């Protein structure tokens, strides 16, 4: 008996058998190709909210075929048409067949079982099925009628009404957690219908692939045999109400009730079970799902935000847990383990032993198999009768310790691959038998078919309800939920999962809170001081790190990575090269700047910065060049690479993305830049199967020892492991210079750490002047050097990790009043209903005007596709204009925006192919989604990179084929083929709009950014990254107005700062809700909750707090029709306002000029220095005079 998973699309009215209330605002459902192919938003809007049973067949929504109404309260009819009923196939005799679906019906197609790819595995398990027939056309599916019937009947036979449970889930698209697989409901399967057949005019028919079930979930929880998670109710709640009721944000409480794969321990097995449309869910997996669901419903009750008898559903869950346990045997992976020693009919053998009464549900199949091998049992009609002699030899030669290990491994719901990995490792047998949790630990650390702690629990913790009399025995037996073997496994699970969030270590307190949460379901407590009293055992797999105020734990691998990188970075930054380059950099840089003006102080300072960078490159063994777009990083690198000495030494150019690689390569003629993945692949340091860098055992033989200089661009995108493997792949003793280039304020890397940001902050304020000289930050925008500040970078400066220029707050007023006249334009939109019109208006107004040209022509020209031949020769033209959005799925996401663009440019269906869930057409703009080596149509193998943008050169609906040309690869065409699979990981997507994450490492002439005011993904770095993608012009589409955007300028909104790292200093938060302190990234004060932007402001804020002076930090004030943001604001005894501005960087002419403008404004509205306006300044090297601050504080005490 099995349970089943059933995929459903997102529905905005809880799948109640009606058309969505707002079909146009639900693009989430279109992640499924059947819906994206058929959905007619305009027609569905006409019937919005209508019951399906009141509609004609041609009025039903696209989701009718994808379980969009599995909570239907009324019956409805659906017409089934066979997809093969065309041409000369036998299916043409099949008639459209009407089926009436009863209330609370659902259907599932077991796609995996019907796919050709699965047939070998299915034959291995069940070799008696009919052979498939050869299809008269290419298809990935089983074609033969008999085999289809057999597969469907076999699949259905394991689903038992009244015993099996259905797990309803969304995949790829939902508003709760973007791309995550999301369980939306769990309920009893109350009826399993027979396999349905098509009506026919012939003497044969074919089966519906859709298996039809009825379930017990009801909206009235008192009558329900199951439940829906209250996602819709939670999302409709007011943010302030949630905060008042729970003390938490709306997103936090939603996170507590959602069921996603991470909540289920990131189990690969459960991930696979929640795939392929409809699949089996094992009893072990169902236990894990039910236990997590119970915790989620307990959170619903605790929150008290929505009505309903949730306690009744917890009782239902408890009854189902007991029921599932009754169905589980003690050795669920018996057949998987048996197949490892070469018993090819293992699954049939187990089935026969059980069907013939030799082995009950709670019996030991190993004992029954042993009797079969000894001839004590008889299975005379078995298909493997001729194989039994061979099996007996195999069994006889399986050693006792091997049998012991196989029996242990078969206690867990794991597959033969995991079992074989351990079976083939005899040196591990003793450790495995003593601590089976190492299966989970090693699978997580090695990222090899992850096995969760909870999966091991079910095999080693005695539970007669599961194991009958075959409960586990010592030394594998675990008799306490706080057994240190189990707890360590939880710790490893937490540390590994945290790597995905960017944390390379976790505080002991946060780990204890996590373990306590894991133990809460069993009503057990973690003893005080547990981590310290079990330190010796836990340290076998982790490292304990102690700071002044807390303890943290780190995986050994990442402690090694941190120690190695710290040593390399410090060592090389503190040493000079033996042969520094001597060039007249001053003259070279001046010549590179258009319209250089010696009389312009900005020009002179820009040259000074760039010369400083070049001299640093030439002299240091490791140097860091930082600066936002447009500040001259390209100029500096070009000049460096032109040096005769550098040319003679050679330079290796590396970048993390394809676009960054192309841009870096364009900086020097004759030097081919590589992506980091390409370089590591060449050296043998990249695992393409796992898509991850690694250090091979023979690393010393593989090290790169070619060029003497290495330049790495876009370093903010590199994880600590990326840097580690990269440094290991270089023969460092033969490398003169390593030059790291990037912008430390961009989004942190996808993965562990923030090494570039940590290195930047370590060097820039280092007390050691020699280390401080290894970094240069370019501060001047070269293209606006004669015309003034860039509005783009002025706005972006608020989202960087540094204090913006004093008059830069004027930018918010300019945006609000529409007074921008530089390189920035801002539009606002209200909600999903007017976004499309606003987007269209912005494009029509801001893209270059052309007399008599249509919107389609304007868009084509903006991306260089008005002349295809020119685009073939120079595909980089397609990157001239780019739309960005934070996310993919909502109405403001890239999926919907791309569909708008396709509508506006007008696609021709004949010259299109479907690559589910999108359709790409000739001249569409597209993006490559993975790193891969791919042959062009001319058979030349090329490297394609994740994020590489191109255009569709050719597409043909009938051939189901398209060809694409990418930037950096002119006149090379790459083939892509039609796919309708909802489970496939596509390698290509539309790219009129791409996510901000995908844009990292790229820049474009004109960028349009859509910014919604809500969303879990929004952060200070995300907005900064979006703002700095434009080379010439930025168009912002901001929801409502810019006021909410100001909140994201605060340090608290930094995702970079929230990461726990240990590269140069241990930065670790106390718990998940706090921000760790790390010098240079976060400046905390004594005033509770106050985080400021600079170390000098910390000193001021702390002194004010200690003296009891009330103040506000960065409070916007309005006067004389203008708004500004002073550093500190006070009220004197009469109620008048007093301001305090702290000034830094006055040696920077742009900063000084900015302050002078702001000071003049203050003067114009009555603020006089020394009376109601006070200032302090940073001195040399950023130092501050505490006596100056104390003197002003004294004056304030007198005034307030």
Automatic annotation (TrEMBL):
This is ATP-dependent RecD-like DNA helicase. Gene3D superfamilies: 2.30.30.940, P-loop containing nucleotide triphosphate hydrolases. Residues 990-1037 form the UvrD-like helicase C-terminal domain. It comes from the Bacteria. CDD domains: DEXSc_RecD-like, SF1_C_RecD. InterPro entries: Coronavir_polyprotein_1ab (IPR050534), P-loop_NTPase (IPR027417), UvrD-like_helicase_C (IPR027785). Keywords: ATP-binding, Helicase, Hydrolase, Nucleotide-binding. GO terms for molecular function: ATP binding; DNA helicase activity.
């Amino acid at each position: 008996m099995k349970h089943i998973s059933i995929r459903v699309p997102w529905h905005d009215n809880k799948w109640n058998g009606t058309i969505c209330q707002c079909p146009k605002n639900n693009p989430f459902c279109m992640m499924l190709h059947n819906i994206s192919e058929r959905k007619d938003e305009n027609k569905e809007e006409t019937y919005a909210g209508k019951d399906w049973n009141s509609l004609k067949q041609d009025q039903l929504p696209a989701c009718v075929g994808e379980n969009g109404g599995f909570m239907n309260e009324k019956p409805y009819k659906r017409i089934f048409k066979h997809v093969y009923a065309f041409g000369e196939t036998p299916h043409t005799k099949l008639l459209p067949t009407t089926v009436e679906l009863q209330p609370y019906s659902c259907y599932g197609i077991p796609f995996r079982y019907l796919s050709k790819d699965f047939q070998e595995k299915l034959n291995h398990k069940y070799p008696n099925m009919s052979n498939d027939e050869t299809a008269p056309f290419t298809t990935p599916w089983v074609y033969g009628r008999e085999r289809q019937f057999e597969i469907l009947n076999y699949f259905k036979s394991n689903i038992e009404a009244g015993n099996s449970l259905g797990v309803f889930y969304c995949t790829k698209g939902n508003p709760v957690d973007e791309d995550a697989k999301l369980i939306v409901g769990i309920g009893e399967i109350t009826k399993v219908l027979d396999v349905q057949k098509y009506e026919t005019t012939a003497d044969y028919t074919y089966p519906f692939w859709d298996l039809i079930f009825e379930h017990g979930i009801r909206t009235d929880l008192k009558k329900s045999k199951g439940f829906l998670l209250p996602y819709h109710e939670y999302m409709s709640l007011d943010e302030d109400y949630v905060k008042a009721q729970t003390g938490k944000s709306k997103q936090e409480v939603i996170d507590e009730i959602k069921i996603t794969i991470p909540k289920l321990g990131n189990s690969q097995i459960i991930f696979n079970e929640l795939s392929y449309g409809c699949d089996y869910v094992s009893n072990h997996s169902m236990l894990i799902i039910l236990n997590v669901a119970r915790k989620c419903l307990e959170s619903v009750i605790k929150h008290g935000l929505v009505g309903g008898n949730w306690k009744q559903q917890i009782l239902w869950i408890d009854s189902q847990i007991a029921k599932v346990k009754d169905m589980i045997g003690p050795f669920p992976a018996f057949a998987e383990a048996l197949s490892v020693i070469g018993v090819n009919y293992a699954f049939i053998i187990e089935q026969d032993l059980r069907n013939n009464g030799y082995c009950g549900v709670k019996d030991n199949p190993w004992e029954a198999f042993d009797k079969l091998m000894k001839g004590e049992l008889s299975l005379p009609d078995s298909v493997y009768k001729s194989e039994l002699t061979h099996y007996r030899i195999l069994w006889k030669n399986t050693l006792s310790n091997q049998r012991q290990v196989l029996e242990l491994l078969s206690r867990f719901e794991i597959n033969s691959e995991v079992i074989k990995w351990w079976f083939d490792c005899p040196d591990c047998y003793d450790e495995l038998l003593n601590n089976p949790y190492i299966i989970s630990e090693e699978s997580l650390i090695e990222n090899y078919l992850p096995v969760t702690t909870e999966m091991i629990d079910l095999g080693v913790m005695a539970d007669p309800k599961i194991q009958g009399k075959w409960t586990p025995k010592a030394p594998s037996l675990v008799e306490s939920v706080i057994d240190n073997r189990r707890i360590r496994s939880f710790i490893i699970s937490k540390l590994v999962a945290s790597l995905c969030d960017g944390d390379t270590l976790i505080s002991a307190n946060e780990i204890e809170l996590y373990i306590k949460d894991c133990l809460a379901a069993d009503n057990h407590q973690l003893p005080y001081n547990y981590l310290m009293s079990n330190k010796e055992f836990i340290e076998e797999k982790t490292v304990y790190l102690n700071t002044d105020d807390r303890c943290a734990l780190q995986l050994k691998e990442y402690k090694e990575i941190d120690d190695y990188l710290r040593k390399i970075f410090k060592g090389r930054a503190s040493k000079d090269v033996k042969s520094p380059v001597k060039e007249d950099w001053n003259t070279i840089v001046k010549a590179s700047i258009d319209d250089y003006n010696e009389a312009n102080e900005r020009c002179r300072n820009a040259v000074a910065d760039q010369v400083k960078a070049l001299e640093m490159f030439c002299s240091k063994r490791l140097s860091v060049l930082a600066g936002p777009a447009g500040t001259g990083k390209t100029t500096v690198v070009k000049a460096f690479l032109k040096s005769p000495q550098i040319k003679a030494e050679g330079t290796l150019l590396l970048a993390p993305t394809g676009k960054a690689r192309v841009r870096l390569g364009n900086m020097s003629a004759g030097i081919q830049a590589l992506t980091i993945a390409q370089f590591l692949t060449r050296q043998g340091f990249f695992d393409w199967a796992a898509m991850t860098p690694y250090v091979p055992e023979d690393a010393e033989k593989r090290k790169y020892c070619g060029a003497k200089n290495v330049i790495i661009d876009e370093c903010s995108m590199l994880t600590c492991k990326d840097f580690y493997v990269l440094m290991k792949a270089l023969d460092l003793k033969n490398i003169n210079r390593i030059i790291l280039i990037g912008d430390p304020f961009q989004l942190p890397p996808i993965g562990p750490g923030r090494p570039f940001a940590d290195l930047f902050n370590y060097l820039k304020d280092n007390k050691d002047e020699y280390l401080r000289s290894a970094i240069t930050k370019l501060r001047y925008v070269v293209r606006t050097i004669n015309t003034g500040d860039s509005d783009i970078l002025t706005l972006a400066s608020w989202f960087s990790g540094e204090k913006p220029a004093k008059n830069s707050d004027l930018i918010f007023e300019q945006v609000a009043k529409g007074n921008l006249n530089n390189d920035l334009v801002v539009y606002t939109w209200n909600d999903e209903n007017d976004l499309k019109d606003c987007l269209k208006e912005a494009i029509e107004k801001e893209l270059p005007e052309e007399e008599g040209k249509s919107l389609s022509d304007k868009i084509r020209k903006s991306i260089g596709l008005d002349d295809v031949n020119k685009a073939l020769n120079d595909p980089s033209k397609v990157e001239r204009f780019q739309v960005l959005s934070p996310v993919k799925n909502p109405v403001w996401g890239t999926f919907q925006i791309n569909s708008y663009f396709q509508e506006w440019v007008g696609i021709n269906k004949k010259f299109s192919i479907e690559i589910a869930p999108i359709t790409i057409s000739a001249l569409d703009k597209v993006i490559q989604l993975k790193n891969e080596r791919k042959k062009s149509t001319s058979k030349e193998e090329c490297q394609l990179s994740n994020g590489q943008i191109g255009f569709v050169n050719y597409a043909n609906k009938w051939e189901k084929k398209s060809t694409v040309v990418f930037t950096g690869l002119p006149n090379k065409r790459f083939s892509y083929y039609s796919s309708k699979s909802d489970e496939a990981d596509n390698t290509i997507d539309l790219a009129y709009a791409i996510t901000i994450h995908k844009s990292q490492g790229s820049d474009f002439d004109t960028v349009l950014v859509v910014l919604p005011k809500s969303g879990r993904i929004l952060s200070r770095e995300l907005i900064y990254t979006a703002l700095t993608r434009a080379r010439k012009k930025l168009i912002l589409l901001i929801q409502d107005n810019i006021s909410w955007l100001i909140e994201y300028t605060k340090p608290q909104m930094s995702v970079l700062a929230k990461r726990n790292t240990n590269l140069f200093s241990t930065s670790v938060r106390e718990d998940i809700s706090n921000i760790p302190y790390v010098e240079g990234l976060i400046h905390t004060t004594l005033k509770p909750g106050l985080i400021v932007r600079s170390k000098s402001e910390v000193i001021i804020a702390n002194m004010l707090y200690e003296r009891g002076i009330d103040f506000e930090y960065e409070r916007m004030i309005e006067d004389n029709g203008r708004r500004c943001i002073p550093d500190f604001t006070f009220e004197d005894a009469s109620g008048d306002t007093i301001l305090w501005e702290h000034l830094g960087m006055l040696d920077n002419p742009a900063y000084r000029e900015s302050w002078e403008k702001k000071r003049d404004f203050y003067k114009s509205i009555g603020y006089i220095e020394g009376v109601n306006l006070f200032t302090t300044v940073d001195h040399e090297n950023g130092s501050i005079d505490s006596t100056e601050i104390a003197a002003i504080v004294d004056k304030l005490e007198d005034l307030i």
